[in-house]
Amino acid sequence: QLLGQAWAAMAQWERSASRCGHAVVVCLGDVGRSPRMQYHAMALADLGCAVSLVGYSGEECCDAVRDSALIREIRFDGRTRRFVLVRFVVLFWRLVRVLWRSTAGAHVILAQTPPAIPTLVAC
């Protein structure tokens, strides 16, 4: 039952991506603590776009984001205990790896700024 629901949700996401387009919403921070980026993801999904919501793991997103079959959350660990330059490089590398996998076939990338430097360079 659960596997069938997951399969149906993935199929609906793929159909929407091929019909209306794929949008990637990037938040270099905890997505669950960013209602503005969640709102952007929901607005794009309401237009019929398949949305990948990318950001740090942490708080859960609102129910509308979690329940939407058109929004796929992609989280990565944003915690590092290193010096500033090393932290920047580590976070930049993690963001590039996540974006490399999630932006294939993306029609639009919406990035949160600030912080612009790692986000815009990686996008």
Proportion of residues in β-strands: 15-25%
Backbone CA Rg: 15 Å
User: Helix amount, in percent?
Assistant: 40-55%
Derived from helix and strand composition plus strand pairing, the structural class reads alpha/beta
- Physical arrangement of strands within the biggest beta sheet: 3-2-1-4
Short summary:
This protein is of the alpha/beta class and 123 residues long. The chain has helices at residues 2-19, 35-46, 63-67, 84-102, 116-122, and strands at residues 22-30, 50-56, 71-76, 108-111.
Question: Which structural traits does this protein have?
Answer:
123 residues; 50% helix; four-stranded parallel sheet
Task: Give a written overview of the molecule.
This protein is an alpha/beta fold and 123 residues long. The protein is 50% helix and 21% strand. It is built from five helices and four strands. The chain has helices spanning 2-19, 35-46, 63-67, 84-102, 116-122; strands spanning 22-30, 50-56, 71-76, 108-111. It has a four-stranded parallel β-sheet, with helices on both faces. The longest helix has 19 residues, at 84-102. It starts with a helix and ends with a helix. The mean pLDDT is 78.
